[in-house]
Design brief:
alpha+beta; 14 strands; about 25% helix; disordered N terminus
Length: about 400
């Protein structure tokens, strides 16, 4: 179910993916190609912008043009940037063409050697990481292509000025998995926000079957403003995360225990192009060590490792009032979640695709929802109680 590549190769893949992640155009530089700016600086405060670059970069979003939306789908999903080009935004079009080219180049750089070496265990980890990075860049480019031409039809969202110090969550989760009998889960969760630290916990229990998943961990903000003080920033950030997880399968007679570490970066796409104000791209890369427990002697077959990789494209839902939140379309490469993975035609297993959203409707109450499609179909709906949720 998960990869068993050597640990040294696994960490090499993680490090390589991190380098690729933060070398993505626009992350280390301002959206105009100017020198590096603080990741928590607002778009309007990009200190590297010169008068010359200001004259070259359109600071206002283009007008909405229905024809550009059509072109962004066909043939724009094959040639990213055609939609913005039809809309008259050549600046964004050029950047999307370059981003798509970078994604295709990374896929070839990793995929071709994999094919030539027969997916050798000695080289598969770093090459696989490069290929995944290529697909993430290509996926983000495709979604940015669509957003750039549809966004002018509505006001751009903004990162919430601050989020409450404590959120409690209770909800329902449905899982349709042909391999297991469980279906209905009660979910409870909580997250606490401090200055640069965020602690999270979640429990999912099937009352009838007894299947239980417990997940605890936290995130430390390396770059960017803390979530309790996002006012005046564009929401870009870099976090290091660590989680532990216990998943018990009583009917099947085994349990899964795992620990993981990851880097998660979020980039406000307004740094890539003003046409994409209100949206963000997110990429996470990490590694997980896992152990299966079941009756019988412990062997190396009980121990596994897994390369963790996710990417997504999202939008801010709020406009600066009490209503604030986000929604994101994403891909998750892990195989040990409720959604699991999908077996491809080539025999490999890819991860799951999903859509999730989280919003505070008032200072005190909010909702969260998520749907995933992989080896199983998963849906979750939760009610959020915010404590200290005043803006």
């Amino acid at each position: 179910m998960v990869s068993e590549l050597p640990l040294r190769s696994r960490w090499g893949a993680v490090c390589l993916s991190g380098v690729l992640l933060f070398s993505t155009p626009g992350l280390a530089r301002g959206g105009d190609g100017s020198p590096e700016v603080p990741v928590d600086a607002p778009l309007q405060a990009h200190v590297g912008l010169s008068q010359q670059s200001l004259a070259q970069v359109p600071l206002e979003r283009p007008d909405f043009k229905p024809l550009a939306v059509v072109v962004a789908v066909v043939p724009g999903l094959l040639f990213h940037g055609l939609g913005p080009l039809v809309a008259g935004d050549s600046h964004t079009a050029k950047r999307l063409f370059a981003l798509e080219g970078a994604g295709l180049g990374l896929i070839a750089l990793g995929g071709v050697p994999i094919a030539l070496t027969g997916a050798s265990r000695r080289t598969i980890a770093p090459l696989y990481a490069v290929t995944l990075a290529g697909f993430s860049v290509l996926g983000i480019s495709a979604l940015a292509n669509l957003y750039a031409v549809t966004a002018p039809a509505f006001d751009a969202g903004v990162a919430p000025p601050l989020l409450p110090p404590l959120e409690l969550e209770v909800g329902y989760q449905y899982v349709n998995d042909a391999a297991f009998d469980y279906r209905h889960f009660l979910t409870v969760g909580a997250q606490a926000r401090f200055d640069s630290l965020r602690l999270l916990g979640a429990v999912r229990v099937d009352p009838s079957e007894g299947n239980t998943q417990v997940r605890l961990g936290g995130a430390w903000r390396l770059l960017g403003a803390p979530e309790r003080a996002l006012s005046g920033t564009d929401g870009s950030a870099l976090d290091v995360e660590a989680f532990g997880q216990f998943h018990r399968y009583p009917t099947e007679g085994f349990a899964l225990i795992s620990g993981e570490v990851a880097l998660r970066g979020r980039l406000a796409m307004s740094r890539f192009s003003p046409a994409m104000a209100g949206s963000f791209a997110e990429v996470s890369v990490g590694t997980s060590a896992e152990a299966y427990t079941y009756p019988g002697a412990v062997s190396d077959g009980n121990l596994h490792e897994q390369l963790l990789f996710t990417f997504g494209y999202g939008v801010w839902l709020g406009r600066g009032g009490p209503f604030r939140g986000e929604a994101m379309l994403y891909y998750d490469h892990r195989k040990d979640s409720f959604a699991g993975g999908i077996r491809s035609r080539g025999g490999g297993i890819v991860g799951a695709f999903g859509l999730k959203g989280r919003a505070l409707l008032t200072d005190d109450w909010g909702v969260a929802a998520e749907v995933q499609g992989g080896g199983a179909l998963v849906g979750r709906l939760s009610l959020i109680r915010a404590l200290g949720g005043e803006r």
